[in-house]
Amino acid sequence: MENNNxxxxxxxxxxxxxxxxxxxxxxxxxxxxxxxxxxxxGPSGCGKSTLLRAFNRMNDFVPNSYVTGEIFLHGQNxxxxxxxxxxxxxxxGMVFQKPNPFPKSIYENIAWGARINGFKGxxxxxxxxxxxxxxxxxxxxxxxxxxxxxxxxxxxxxLCIARTIAIQPEIILMDEPxxxxxxxxxxxxxxxxxxxxxxxxxxxxxxxMQQAARVSDYTAMMMIxxxxxxxxxxxxxxxKIFTRPSDKxxxxxxxxxFG
Amino acid sequence: xxTNNYYPQAQEFQKELNSRYRVASxxxxxxxxxxxxxxLSLTALMYNVIDGxxxxxxxxxxxDPSEFxxxxxxxxxxxxxxxxxxxxxxxxxxxxxxxxxxxQTRSQADLLNLFLxxxxxxxxxxxxxxxxxxxxxxxxxxxxxxxYPEARIEFRSWLTPQFLVSPMSSRAExxxxxxxxxxxxxxxxxxxxxxxxxxxxAAIYLQEYAPKNWFTSLIQININNLAGVPSIVYGMLxxxxxxxxxxxxxxxxxxxxxxxxxxxxxxxxxxxxxxxxPLIIINAQEAIKAVPDSLRQASFGVGATRxxxxxxxxxxxxxxxxxxxSILALSRALGETAPLIVVGASTFISVDPDGPFSKxxxxxxxxxxxxxxxxxxxxxxxxxxxVVLLVLLLTLNATAILLRNQFQRKY
Lengths: 259, 411
Ligand SMILES: Nc1ncnc2c1ncn2[C@@H]1O[C@H](COP(=O)(O)OP(=O)(O)OP(=O)(O)O)[C@@H](O)[C@H]1O
Ligand SMILES: [Mg+2]
Hints:
The structure holds two protein chains of two kinds. In chain A, about 35% of the residues lie in helices and about 25% in strands. Chain A is built from ten helices and eleven strands. Chain A has helices spanning about 50-55, 85-90, 105-115, 125-135, 135-140, 155-165, 185-195, 210-215, 240-245, 250-255; strands spanning about 10-20, 20-30, 30-35, 35-40, 65-75, 75, 90-95, 170-175, 200-205, 220-225, 230-235. In chain A, strands 7-8-9-4-10-11 form a six-stranded mixed beta sheet, with helices on both faces. In chain A, strands 1, 2, 3, 5 and 6 form a five-stranded antiparallel beta sheet that branches. In chain A, helix 7 (about 185-195) links the parallel strand 8 (about 170-175) and strand 9. In chain A, helix 3 (about 105-115) runs parallel beside helix 6. Chain A is globular. Chain B folds into two domains: about 60-165, no CATH class; about 180-410, Orthogonal Bundle (MetI-like fold). Chain B has 17 helices and three strands. Chain B has a three-stranded antiparallel beta sheet with strand order 2-1-3, sandwiched between helices. The longest helix of chain B is centred in the first third of the chain and has 44 residues, at about 10-55. The mean pLDDT of chain B is about 85. Bound molecules: adenosine-5'-triphosphate and magnesium ion (MG). The site of adenosine-5'-triphosphate has 11 residues of chain A, from helix 1.
């Protein structure tokens, strides 16, 4: 097992994700490299969020949802009995498709996660640092103790990113983190990802082809098959996906001739 | 083909719009009518209650007050009353009263009541409702003059401070609701203290932990149905379980209280607790369901356990809803009569309940008891009792609502 410990943080083998009898994602075999940004692209409903949620066992909460095949996290099977899902989620942070701050103050939104995970440092510093990293500090530094619900959608999304950074996971999963943001905030988030890449492995779902091309090192192209199950039809370096894709469907999609 | 042709245009559109407005205004008036009926019935209810609580009363003195003192009755001071009572009551009777509450510490109103009750011995001949008293004043005066030439007549409010603080009495003029109010408060307190934590706990388990299978659905269906079971059935349950089976516990004999049986406040409170349990569970479940899943995901997403998620996010956000449920439960527990009769509320009791192992009576029992009496003065105090019950209900509800608003999240 130790052998694939070096390059890859997440590796899947014949991964299928089912909702009841419906196979939403079928036979995914990808290797996500450490400290790189991997983008997942594909048309709506092809299972991108489903795949992402499987990576930190969020699908555990969907009744009747289960996986077959394997996901290795640093060589250990994520779905084996030995792995505690709470510990796994703490190591693999997630930013959701819809911003979902806690109904608490901005400060508490960040401090709560840190506190329950036993953070022993200076909380004020952590909050400031996390907010700065998420390019939100300047906008909220004067109202840290006001409700997070009073923020705009894009600010809330950045708060969710800050919240995730604050617990210092190893991998960060982002489900369309920029879909509610203006171009400037989007660029900031992208800069932030480049910054985070030094320490974290990032997997991002995006509908924005330019964004995928700009920020990611690797890209997984997903598509629905005849049974309406999604699958990764091509997984390669982003450069290659966007310049010389080997699959015709990928080429159509990234050039805008599809979906 | 122009699809616009399928829609009415200009004139035709106007006509159709007008008919839509007509239908709308018909429905609106129907709803207004419904509201009026509701307001009317509530007003009638309130009037009916108030009507009984005030009115003329014709009464005679068995012994003239002048036999005891030269001061007019309504000018008697506390000291005067004390001396009168001391010298005219038998020493046994005086001692007994003194044991209930030291005579020196009693208020002037209290002593006056004792004077009228024990010595003068007021004898009520007839009472009238408020409506009668206002609109048929002449007739009442004439009737009294011819039927009871000796009688005095006065307009009396049955709802007095004295009524609130006096214990039960066999004479309506001197009876009060103190014992019953205290009994009701004890009951509701025990019921909520029992049902709120258990009900909330059960709801949390059902919503957050229990797997969704046929077994939990069966439990769910049962809980929903239990909320509709007639209260008398809960009374039977309470009698069998709390009064009989758990008698050592509910009578207090386990704790060295010897002279009680199982028909205690504790039994009745627990019975009421079981009665409101489904109500609390269902409301708490609804409140928990209303907490958005995205919040749970956010919590799990930062590495929280199920318990941390429930404790820090689900519960605080569901709390206002849970408290709303307990307001409903509280009202129900306060007003229920049937189960209390089955569990064995005392119908005549003049000592205050002093703990969970006391015998007890409750307001609805007391009111029911009074309405079954033949004499009209008992109907008058029954009406006053209902006013007290309603005010108590409003006060408790208001307290719960204030509490709820306190918990309502600022975010
Ligand atoms: N909780 C669920 N229960 C049942 N089916 C689900 C559930 N969540 C998603 N699905 C189904 O799984 C498939 C993939 O959904 P998913 O949300 O992963 O798509 P997506 O690629 O993220 O789409 P989008 O780009 O619109 O967000 C869809 O057919 C969807 O209906
Ligand atoms: Mg999605």
